[in-house]
Amino acid sequence: MGFDIAPWHLRRAVDALQRGGVIACPTEAVWGLSCDPLHRAACLRLLELKRRDWRKGLILVAARFEDLPSFVELPSNNAMKRATATWPGPATWVFPAAPDAPAWLTGDHDSIAVRVTAHPVLRALCRAFGPLVSTSANRSGREPARGISEVRLQFGDTLDAIVPGALGGLAKPTTIRDVQTGHILRR
Question: How far apart are CA 108 and CA 172, in angstroms?
Answer without folding.
Answer: 25
